[in-house]
Amino acid sequence: MKKIEAIIRTMKFEDVKHALETAGFDSMTVTEVKGRGRQKGITQQWRGAEYVVDMIPKTKIEIVAADVDAEKIIDIIATSAATGQIGDGKIFVTTIDDVIRVRTKERGDTAI
């Protein structure tokens, strides 16, 4: 099993969610987060004054999936979240040893 964590632009979340649901991947955890990458934020102007926003609002999507589905999910997220601009986000993939459904105590792929 794999845990896929994607940090994406908030404005692209609905596109990603729709693409995942269309492909049959409905389960996900979503969190509003703030962060920055190599660009170290953005410079904006407000009322004539320039200021730096160094922590950009993003959306984090977490999905635990069977190994056979992981690459498809990664491709869906990468394709539907992309704008081609700096700040599109990152996808992190880690291996999950086990999953336990609390209600039934099922384990492994059946608990996903």
Features:
22% helix; Alpha-Beta Plaits; four-stranded antiparallel β-sheet; 6 strands; two-stranded antiparallel ribbon; 2 helices; alpha+beta; 112 residues
Number of helices: 2
The chain-level structural class is alpha+beta
The 3D shape can be described as elongated
CATH uppermost class: Alpha Beta
Q: What is the number of E strands? A: 6
Strand ordering within the main sheet: 2-5-1-6
Residue-averaged pLDDT: 92
Distance between the amino and carboxyl termini:
9 Å
In short, what is this structure?
The protein is an alpha+beta fold and 112 residues long. The chain is built from 2 helices and 6 strands, in the order βαββββαβ.
Textual characterization of the structure:
By secondary structure, the protein is an alpha+beta fold. It has one domain: Alpha-Beta Plaits, CATH 3.30.70.120. Helix content is 22%, strand content 38%. The chain has 2 helices and 6 strands, in the order E-H-E-E-E-E-H-E. The protein has helices at residues 13-22, 67-81, and strands at 2-9, 29-35, 42-46, 49-53, 56-65, 89-95. It has a 4-stranded antiparallel β-sheet with strand order 2-5-1-6, with helices on one face. Strands 3-4 form a two-stranded antiparallel ribbon. A hairpin with a 2-residue loop joins strand 3 (42-46) and strand 4 (49-53). Helix 1 packs antiparallel against helix 2 (67-81). It is elongated and about 60 Å long. It comes from Methanoculleus taiwanensis.
